[in-house]
Amino acid sequence: MAADLGELLVPYMPTIRVPRTGDRVYKSECVFSFDSPESEGGLYVCMNTFLGFGREHVERHYRKTGQSVYMHLKRHVKELNRDFNGEDYEYEDEAKLVIFPDHFEIPLPNIEELPALVSESVLHELLCVSMHELESWEEEIQVSRHARSLRQLDNGVRIRPSGWKCQKCEMRENLWLNLTDGAVLCGKWFFDGSGGNGHALDHFKETKYPLAVKMETITPDGADVYSFEEEEAVLDPHISEHLSHFGIDMLQMQKKVGCQRLIQESGMKLKAVFGSGYTGVKNLGNSCYLGTVIQVLFSIPDFQRMYVGNLQRIFDYSPLDPSQDFATQIVCVCVSVCDAQMLSFQHQQKGVSPRMLKALVSRGHPEFSSNRQQDAHEFLQHMVNLVERNSAGSENPSDVFRFLVEERVQCCQTRRVRYTQRVDYCIQLPAPIEAATNREELVAYETKRREAEENMQAPPDPVTARIPFTACLQAFTEPENVPDFWSSALQAKSAGVKTSRFSSFPEYLVLQIKKFTFGVDWVPKKLDLAIDVPDFLDLSRLRATGLQTSEEELPDLLPPIVLPEDTRAPEIDEAAVMQLAEMGFPLEACRKAVYYTGNMGPEMAFNWIIAHMEEPALMDPGPSTSESPMGGTPPGNSPPEESISILTSMGFPRAHSIQALKATNNNLERALDWIFIHPEQQEEESDALSDEADTQPNDNAFSNGNNTHSDSTLSPDRGASGPRVKDGPGRYELFAFISHMGASTMSGHYVCHIKKEGRWVIYNDHKVCLSERPPKDLGYIYFYHRLSSS
Question: What are the Polar residues biased-composition ranges (predicted)?
Answer without folding.
Answer: 695-715
